[in-house]
Each structure stands twice: as C-alpha cells, then as structure tokens.
Please model this.
Amino acid sequence: MWIYEKKLEYPVKIKATNPKAAKIVLDQYGGPDGELGAALRYLSQRFTMVTPEAKAILNDIGTEE
Amino acid sequence: MNRDSLLAQLTALDFMAVELALYLDTHPCEKKVIEKYNSVIREADMIRMEYERLYGPLCSYRSPSNADQWNWKDNPWPWECAANFEIKEREWQ
Model:
C-alpha cells in the first residue's frame, strides 16, 4: 500500500522552456529504460531477497522511484 | 510563514527523512543516524500539520478535509508550476 503526497520530493528549477529536453526527461521517466520500469523491477526483486536489509532497501528505493 | 516557504521547509525535511531512511536500511545500528531521523520526522510532522491547516490536504486519505468542500481536488497539483517554489516567474503557467 502506498501513500500519495500532493507535493514534490525535490522541486526542480526550470529556467527556460525546452521541448527537446522535456521529451528526453519524459522518456527517462516513463520510457522503456526509465524510472518507472526500474521502480517496478526493484519492487519485484525484493520478493527474492533473503536478508531484511535487502528487502527493505529494494522496497524503499522502488517506492522512492 | 507564507505557502512557498512553509512548503520548501517541509520538502527539505521530508527529503532528509527519505535519504536517512534509505541509509538506515543498510546501516540499521547507527544510533546517531536513528536519532537524526527521529528528530527530522518529528519536525516535519509539525510543519505538515501547519501546512495542511492553512493550505489544504497533502494526502487524500490521511488528511482532514475542509468541512464544506472536498478541497483535496483543489489546484495547484505538484506538476503545475504554481506549486513549484523553485520557479520564481510563474506568470507563464
């Protein structure tokens, strides 16, 4: 179970509008090699972990991403 | 304190809490870090309560709502520039 918080974890200073850069950022976020895919992989891999530390870190990194 | 600076303070504290928690996952016996973590989340909780009292809920099922209107839905949402205190010139939103 996750909690959505209506605020940013780390707000970014955007100085100028740049559609090309925006496209790259969006791809890094939801694209084939992006954060979203990585997050889901961390959350799946946690099920095969043996130590409590490993379960915790994969759970929490997956959550943060 | 105004909305931006209150939110900036809360954001900084919550970010610290996230990072300390990740560190503690793999260093669970470092008492000094646990102490720091506990003090950070205590301070963050106080500021979160103050922020929510003044500017509305941050969570859709933990925060109290305005009595006459479900103000969870109110703008701004985090991806809108009105919510980003790092952006100084927000007239282009």
